[in-house]
Write a structure and sequence with these properties.
The chain is of the alpha+beta class. It has 19 helices and 23 strands. 35% of the residues lie in helices and 21% in strands.
Amino acid sequence: MCGIIATILADPNESAVEVINNGLPILQHRGQDACGIATCAHGGKIYTRKGNGLCAEVIRTQQHLADLPGSMGIGHLRYPTAGSSGNAEAQPFYVNSPYGICFAHNGNLINAHELRSYLDHEAHRHINTESDSEVLLNIFASALQETGKFRVNEEDVFTALKDVYKRSQGGYACVAMLAGFGIMGFRDPHGIRPLVLGERKSIGPQGGMDYMFSSESVALDQLEFINHITIAPGETVIITKGNKPLFRQIVPAVDPTPDIFEYVYFARPDSIIDGISVYRSRQNMGLALANTVLKQLGPEVVKTIDLVIPIPTTSEVSALSLAQELKITYCQAFVKNRYVGRTFIMPGQKERQKSVRRKLNAMKDEFKGRNVLLVDDSIVRGTTSREIVLMAREAQAKKVFFASCAPPIRNAHIYGIDLADTKELVAYDRSEEDVAKHIGADAVIYQTLPDLIASCTSLNPQIKNFEVGVFSGTYVTPVAPDYFKRLERIRGQSSLKKRREAAVTAVTAGVANDKDVEQVLSRVRANGDQTEIKVKDTMDCSIHNFNDYVDVSKEAGGAD
């Protein structure tokens, strides 16, 4: 899952980068791995700055903003999915032919392997990274190339996108910018990934309207873009310089099936996605979960629970609703350090366990001698949950019950959230009693899937179905039989690479444990006398498509 933004301003002398740079931090929860901005100035010249790190680490000075001129641009926040997450894969991506296209993508293609083969053998376009976003960009570029025109118009773009929809399978929301032409946004045929458009009056002397695409409505709200329009499944919107948005349904409209995990975990509570308030959906989840807790534990056990404690921060809304429904005291007894990243995407189990301790602190006075019901948005690997239960017991809680706002996760997420290999999921091939034993809780209570769906559909009856494959194992798009084997192989290779890099870093810093040392020595033994050469990211041609690429880990000081 990533965050995307695109804007075009009515006044050609206004700065699009100011809007994008203010908008991206609002969506920072959607991706902390990399950040990038591309703008287009007079004459169609494209400028960019991108690299690994948070927004504030990549765009640090006023000069960085000044180096990105132009009244239109796009921005991206990367959340790593299966495969590499190298510097070269920071978006936006760019191809110079045809017409100069910048592209940013949120989601995941499940037929990227087949599309790579097509691009290589038939379209003869080279893909230089492991990113499916680069694949999707080149599918679009290849189709647009077929026009053979000196300049394209909106109809040419719509025609090219028909080929994109025909060939691409998966969940995707995309924004693109054509040099000197305009910006566009489009969404997959099922509406799995979100995209919304807003407008505001220009502050320029000529008046007119500014427009902005965003993954979530909250960025539009905070930047004063109004009249929000949700991009429909299979719909494309093109906005050229000085003109109003042009909407076109590229493929026949179907019932939208947004990813329900947006409401459970990923989106900000103050966003509205597909007409559904994330905040209110989480309130509903808490109310439904309260009834399930009552049924499973029984009224007598529920009466013995002293506190309902949320695991910060996503579950707080649901936990409060649950506590009010059960008439149990609500207490924020875990305090979160907001400057530690999300743990379930960390490469190793030990690192995830350590991170939980750095991220959360249990207030012992609140736990001591009490029966507590911990509420979290979901349980993925169980590593975080087990550590949290242990912290509660160390704080001398008598009994620890654990409730999940989501049903058991027993299947891979294939549309843009890299949770874990299926066999690493704690609920895989385990009953609720087995999960409780594994994480050390007295009992585990999961939300039911019908209750989860009802928590959202009740807020917008037009949305009848959701993408729930992570819970049910049934996905809204066709999935090739060998897809999951290929996905696990890629994830395994990526995880091994990260562990090796972490071991080398630990050995170099003099803080390695025995496993780190063995990891490094095993590579030395495997290579014999040959030294393994690590190619620097800065040598990857993918990052030289633009004027400026930044590796924040190597830059020193605050300005350059």
